[in-house]
Design goal:
By secondary structure, this protein is an all-alpha fold. It is about 70% helix and about 0% strand.
Length: about 200
Protein backbone atom coordinates (compact mmCIF):
# COMPACT_ATOMS: atom_id res chain seq x y z
CA UNK A 1 0.00 0.00 0.00
CA UNK A 2 1.23 3.48 -0.90
CA UNK A 3 2.06 5.71 2.04
CA UNK A 4 -0.35 8.60 2.43
CA UNK A 5 2.64 10.94 2.69
CA UNK A 6 4.62 9.69 -0.29
CA UNK A 7 4.46 11.88 -3.38
CA UNK A 8 6.81 11.06 -6.23
CA UNK A 9 5.15 12.46 -9.32
CA UNK A 10 7.74 15.20 -9.81
CA UNK A 11 5.20 17.99 -10.26
CA UNK A 12 6.73 21.45 -9.87
CA UNK A 13 3.78 22.90 -7.96
CA UNK A 14 1.45 21.01 -5.61
CA UNK A 15 -2.28 21.63 -5.80
CA UNK A 16 -3.46 24.43 -3.53
CA UNK A 17 -4.73 22.63 -0.39
CA UNK A 18 -7.90 24.73 -0.49
CA UNK A 19 -9.00 22.88 -3.64
CA UNK A 20 -9.94 19.63 -1.92
CA UNK A 21 -12.01 21.44 0.73
CA UNK A 22 -13.93 23.33 -1.94
CA UNK A 23 -14.28 20.17 -4.04
CA UNK A 24 -15.75 18.15 -1.17
CA UNK A 25 -18.55 20.71 -0.85
CA UNK A 26 -19.48 20.23 -4.52
CA UNK A 27 -18.72 16.54 -4.97
CA UNK A 28 -21.54 16.20 -7.53
CA UNK A 29 -19.77 18.68 -9.82
CA UNK A 30 -16.41 16.99 -9.24
CA UNK A 31 -17.83 13.58 -10.17
CA UNK A 32 -19.44 14.95 -13.34
CA UNK A 33 -16.23 16.69 -14.39
CA UNK A 34 -14.23 13.59 -13.48
CA UNK A 35 -16.43 11.42 -15.72
CA UNK A 36 -15.68 13.64 -18.69
CA UNK A 37 -11.96 13.65 -17.83
CA UNK A 38 -11.97 9.85 -18.10
CA UNK A 39 -13.86 10.02 -21.41
CA UNK A 40 -11.31 12.52 -22.76
CA UNK A 41 -8.42 10.36 -21.57
CA UNK A 42 -9.81 7.35 -23.45
CA UNK A 43 -10.43 9.50 -26.54
CA UNK A 44 -6.90 10.91 -26.42
CA UNK A 45 -5.39 7.42 -26.36
CA UNK A 46 -7.61 6.34 -29.27
CA UNK A 47 -6.43 9.39 -31.22
CA UNK A 48 -2.79 8.50 -30.59
CA UNK A 49 -3.38 4.91 -31.71
CA UNK A 50 -5.17 6.03 -34.89
CA UNK A 51 -2.62 8.70 -35.81
CA UNK A 52 0.45 6.60 -34.94
CA UNK A 53 -0.86 3.18 -36.01
CA UNK A 54 2.62 2.32 -37.31
CA UNK A 55 4.15 2.54 -33.80
CA UNK A 56 3.61 -1.02 -32.61
CA UNK A 57 4.82 -0.40 -29.04
CA UNK A 58 2.46 2.57 -28.70
CA UNK A 59 -0.52 0.63 -30.04
CA UNK A 60 0.21 -2.31 -27.73
CA UNK A 61 0.70 -0.15 -24.64
CA UNK A 62 -2.19 2.27 -25.13
CA UNK A 63 -4.88 -0.18 -26.26
CA UNK A 64 -5.41 -1.57 -22.73
CA UNK A 65 -5.22 2.00 -21.35
CA UNK A 66 -8.23 2.92 -23.51
CA UNK A 67 -10.19 0.07 -21.94
CA UNK A 68 -9.06 1.06 -18.46
CA UNK A 69 -9.93 4.74 -18.89
CA UNK A 70 -13.36 3.78 -20.22
CA UNK A 71 -13.89 1.47 -17.26
CA UNK A 72 -13.05 4.44 -15.02
CA UNK A 73 -15.71 6.46 -16.86
CA UNK A 74 -18.21 3.70 -16.12
CA UNK A 75 -17.14 3.60 -12.47
CA UNK A 76 -17.63 7.35 -12.08
CA UNK A 77 -21.10 6.98 -13.60
CA UNK A 78 -21.79 4.30 -11.00
CA UNK A 79 -20.75 6.70 -8.21
CA UNK A 80 -23.13 9.31 -9.65
CA UNK A 81 -25.98 6.81 -9.79
CA UNK A 82 -25.38 5.76 -6.16
CA UNK A 83 -26.12 9.35 -5.26
CA UNK A 84 -29.11 9.67 -7.63
CA UNK A 85 -27.16 12.14 -9.73
CA UNK A 86 -27.19 12.55 -13.52
CA UNK A 87 -24.10 12.85 -15.70
CA UNK A 88 -24.79 16.44 -16.67
CA UNK A 89 -23.30 18.42 -19.53
CA UNK A 90 -19.61 18.38 -20.47
CA UNK A 91 -17.68 21.44 -19.41
CA UNK A 92 -14.69 23.26 -20.84
CA UNK A 93 -11.39 22.13 -19.32
CA UNK A 94 -9.48 25.39 -19.03
CA UNK A 95 -6.45 23.60 -17.58
CA UNK A 96 -6.06 21.24 -20.55
CA UNK A 97 -6.77 24.06 -23.02
CA UNK A 98 -3.91 26.11 -21.56
CA UNK A 99 -1.64 23.08 -21.32
CA UNK A 100 -2.15 22.28 -25.00
CA UNK A 101 -0.70 25.70 -25.85
CA UNK A 102 2.71 24.73 -24.41
CA UNK A 103 2.93 21.82 -26.86
CA UNK A 104 5.84 22.57 -29.22
CA UNK A 105 4.65 22.68 -32.82
CA UNK A 106 6.63 21.54 -35.83
CA UNK A 107 9.67 19.30 -35.82
CA UNK A 108 9.78 15.68 -36.89
CA UNK A 109 6.84 13.30 -36.60
CA UNK A 110 8.52 11.66 -33.61
CA UNK A 111 9.05 15.05 -31.93
CA UNK A 112 5.36 15.84 -32.40
CA UNK A 113 4.46 12.46 -30.93
CA UNK A 114 6.71 13.03 -27.91
CA UNK A 115 4.99 16.37 -27.24
CA UNK A 116 1.60 14.66 -27.18
CA UNK A 117 2.87 11.84 -24.97
CA UNK A 118 4.37 14.29 -22.46
CA UNK A 119 1.20 16.38 -22.29
CA UNK A 120 -0.77 13.19 -21.64
CA UNK A 121 1.75 12.11 -19.01
CA UNK A 122 1.37 15.41 -17.21
CA UNK A 123 -2.43 15.31 -17.24
CA UNK A 124 -2.28 11.80 -15.77
CA UNK A 125 0.24 12.89 -13.13
CA UNK A 126 -1.90 15.86 -12.09
CA UNK A 127 -5.00 13.68 -12.01
CA UNK A 128 -3.14 11.20 -9.84
CA UNK A 129 -2.17 14.00 -7.45
CA UNK A 130 -5.77 15.23 -7.25
CA UNK A 131 -7.05 11.70 -6.66
CA UNK A 132 -4.51 11.38 -3.85
CA UNK A 133 -5.85 14.55 -2.21
CA UNK A 134 -9.41 13.24 -2.44
CA UNK A 135 -8.34 9.87 -1.03
CA UNK A 136 -6.60 11.49 1.92
CA UNK A 137 -9.18 14.17 2.72
CA UNK A 138 -12.71 13.09 1.82
CA UNK A 139 -14.92 12.01 4.70
CA UNK A 140 -16.91 9.61 2.50
CA UNK A 141 -15.16 6.25 3.05
CA UNK A 142 -16.42 4.68 -0.19
CA UNK A 143 -15.17 7.63 -2.23
CA UNK A 144 -11.85 7.48 -0.38
CA UNK A 145 -11.43 3.88 -1.51
CA UNK A 146 -12.57 4.75 -5.04
CA UNK A 147 -10.00 7.53 -5.39
CA UNK A 148 -7.21 5.44 -3.90
CA UNK A 149 -7.78 2.79 -6.56
CA UNK A 150 -7.85 5.35 -9.36
CA UNK A 151 -4.76 7.10 -7.98
CA UNK A 152 -2.76 3.88 -8.30
CA UNK A 153 -4.01 3.34 -11.85
CA UNK A 154 -3.27 6.89 -13.02
CA UNK A 155 0.28 6.68 -11.67
CA UNK A 156 0.83 3.70 -13.94
CA UNK A 157 -0.54 5.56 -16.96
CA UNK A 158 1.72 8.53 -16.35
CA UNK A 159 4.75 6.20 -16.41
CA UNK A 160 3.49 4.52 -19.60
CA UNK A 161 3.47 7.81 -21.50
CA UNK A 162 6.98 8.75 -20.33
CA UNK A 163 8.27 5.30 -21.21
CA UNK A 164 6.81 5.57 -24.71
CA UNK A 165 8.28 9.04 -25.24
CA UNK A 166 11.76 7.65 -24.54
CA UNK A 167 11.26 5.03 -27.25
CA UNK A 168 10.78 7.64 -29.96
CA UNK A 169 13.31 10.33 -29.00
CA UNK A 170 16.59 10.22 -26.99
CA UNK A 171 16.08 10.24 -23.22
CA UNK A 172 17.99 13.52 -22.75
CA UNK A 173 15.71 15.26 -25.23
CA UNK A 174 12.59 13.80 -23.60
CA UNK A 175 13.62 14.77 -20.06
CA UNK A 176 14.58 18.31 -21.12
CA UNK A 177 11.12 18.77 -22.66
CA UNK A 178 9.47 17.12 -19.64
CA UNK A 179 11.14 19.55 -17.23
CA UNK A 180 10.11 22.53 -19.38
CA UNK A 181 6.52 21.34 -19.63
CA UNK A 182 6.42 20.82 -15.85
CA UNK A 183 7.59 24.42 -15.38
CA UNK A 184 4.97 25.70 -17.83
CA UNK A 185 2.26 23.70 -16.04
CA UNK A 186 3.25 25.24 -12.70
CA UNK A 187 2.82 28.71 -14.21
CA UNK A 188 -0.60 27.71 -15.55
CA UNK A 189 -1.73 26.51 -12.11
CA UNK A 190 -0.57 29.71 -10.43
CA UNK A 191 -2.91 31.69 -12.65
CA UNK A 192 -5.93 29.38 -12.64
CA UNK A 193 -8.89 30.07 -10.40
CA UNK A 194 -9.32 27.45 -7.67
CA UNK A 195 -12.61 25.80 -8.56
CA UNK A 196 -14.46 23.09 -6.71
CA UNK A 197 -16.36 22.04 -9.83
CA UNK A 198 -13.33 20.97 -11.84
CA UNK A 199 -10.99 18.02 -11.41
CA UNK A 200 -8.12 20.10 -12.81
Amino acid sequence: MISKDKHVLGLELPTDPRWVNIAEKSIEEILIDHAYCEQKAATSCISLIVNYYDKAELVDMLTPVVAEEWSHFERVLEELRKRDLALGMPRKDEYVAKLSKVEKKGGSRNQQLVEKLLINALIEARSCERFRLLWKNLEDASLQKFYYELMVSEAGHYKNFLQLAKLYMPEDYVMDRWRKILEDEADILKNLEIRGDRMH
